[in-house]
Amino acid sequence: MPWNSLMERTMKEIHEQEKTIDDIVGALKRVPIHPRVVTAIKYAHALGCELRIVSDANLFFIETILEHLGLRNYFSEINTNPGFMDEQGRLRISPYREQIRKSSHGCTLCPPNMCKGLIIERIQATIAKEVGNKKLIYLGDGAGDYCPSLKLTELDYVMPRMNFPVWELISRNPILIKAEIHEWSDGEDLEHVLLQIVEGLLNRQIQLLCWQQQQLIASSRRLLLQQLHSLQGLSQYLSREYRF
């Protein structure tokens, strides 16, 4: 059974047990989140990374946790299954809205409600239109994160969590992954690996900008010398032609 269908059934059973939305919110706020993950999100955002979520969870769960941690505004986009409260006060979970119009997304690797690979392809098409050579860093741990990992290019990075389904799938034949693979194990490791990648990209960008600036200065210097040489030649010509 797809995860969103299982969650829909679970929410129905919880409602029948007379549990309220407030009970669900309280439980979500108690979900343990490694503090270094929160730090990594804030630091990556401060360094200029645009953060997006691609998840087979649901919007209600994700937004509740992000708002509790003070992280909602750090993410520009959340791609997930809709979650909302109906008139009876029951939490409802629906399939991902962009793919429910199709009978099938055609991907044999992903559950029927969501192909994360298609979402990544849409994001890639979007950033391709923007200025600058942007790269993707994809983090994941579930089997559903394998398909989007296959969509990444040689310029991108994928961070599979060690000993989790996506890591196991990638490890079977890593040559299928074009992106640079960086493993991680826990929240502290995630922070270290992610920020190492981001800082490395920033350093290379700074080096490129410095090199471009040096080339511009050298080009301007050559042009200035050429102009001075031309002026000297003109001065000598005028001196010869207009002697008094």
From TrEMBL:
- Keywords, in A-Z order: Hydrolase, Magnesium, Metal-binding
State which residue ranges cross the membrane. none
Q: Which InterPro entries match?
A: HAD-like_sf, HAD_hydro_PyrdxlP_Pase-like, HAD_sf, Pase_PHOSPHO-typ
* Residues given in the record as Mg(2+) binding sites: 141
Annotated Gene3D superfamilies: HAD superfamily/HAD-like
Q: May I ask which residue range the UniProt record assigns to the signal sequence?
A: none
Q: Which cofactor does it need?
A: Mg(2+)
Which residues, by range, are in coiled-coil regions?
none
Domain of life, per lineage: Eukaryota
GO molecular function, a single term? metal ion binding
One Pfam family matching this protein: Put_Phosphatase
Q: Which SUPFAM superfamilies match?
A: HAD-like (SSF56784)
Protein's recorded name: Uncharacterized protein
Give the organism the record lists: Linum tenue
